[in-house]
Amino acid sequence: MRKTLTTSGAALSLMLLLAGCSGPGVDSVELSGDPEPGKAPSITFETPLNVEEADAKVLREGDGAELAEGDTLLLQAALYKGSDATSIGETYSRGAGQVLKLEAELKESIPEMYDALVGAKEGAIVAYSSPETSGAAGDDSTSVEVYEVVRKIPTEIEGEMQDSPKGLPEVTENEEGVPTVAKPEGKAPGKLVSEYLVEGDGEEVAEGDTVIAHYVGVKWSDGETFDSSYDKGAPASFPLDNVIEGWQKGLEGKKEGSRVVLSVPVDQAYGTEKELGKDSEYPAGSLLFVVDILAAVETPEPPAEEKPSPEPSPTRE
User: What is the residue range of 120's domain?
Assistant: First the structure.
């Protein structure tokens, strides 16, 4: 996997969305025991499954915090072949999962999905099948999607923001709470700088954790914003092992609920212009980020004897 900062999808709404009541096909889906934390669930169902209308079934109610309108959720997904119930993809072994917000757009476009999640609880598991997936697995069956609500996550950082460390540009925020970085002046620090602008009181980010964060990234050379999760409409979700070294070292040990400013030297960022080439999609040189650490969860370990399975696509643009 490329070490890049990217969200799992910009306009985050599930690709395979819950629509309609449970039908006879999906009604046969059952959990094969309670799944281990961080592992894709095993399921059984009558095969071949081939629904004519989108159907959903709650496999586990969940026992965590209740979900409400406006909440942002971290989901994991697993995909099963409708003809024989074999696994054909999952997000668990990749760690990051999917971020979904319970907002008006979801309520208007897929009210059944919205209604299924609002009032549910963390830990809920839902099975779903749609005729849209017919043929996707190489036969006429419709795939079974299983979604697990890992947890709900905050959408903003609370607390008074402190001044930037000496030598770093000023950071303010607009009326929507989005960080704004002044144009850098002078030479970028030669070493990594990672400091709190707002220190939260949550758990510390551990090595290799999956972090859910909002962020803004600018180039030291001209102050141009080259990446922003705010512009994509949802926080990013990423295992620390899969991002640039400056993020790995700069976020480890920082607390959930914090806003952190990172000045990343070129050797811990993407590289120089010469190394990247003129057509690279990544910014060259030293970089500066403002990162809001909304949550952090332990990244599941993929089975040692297996390669990571193909990731299902539980989002659509």
Answer: 13-153
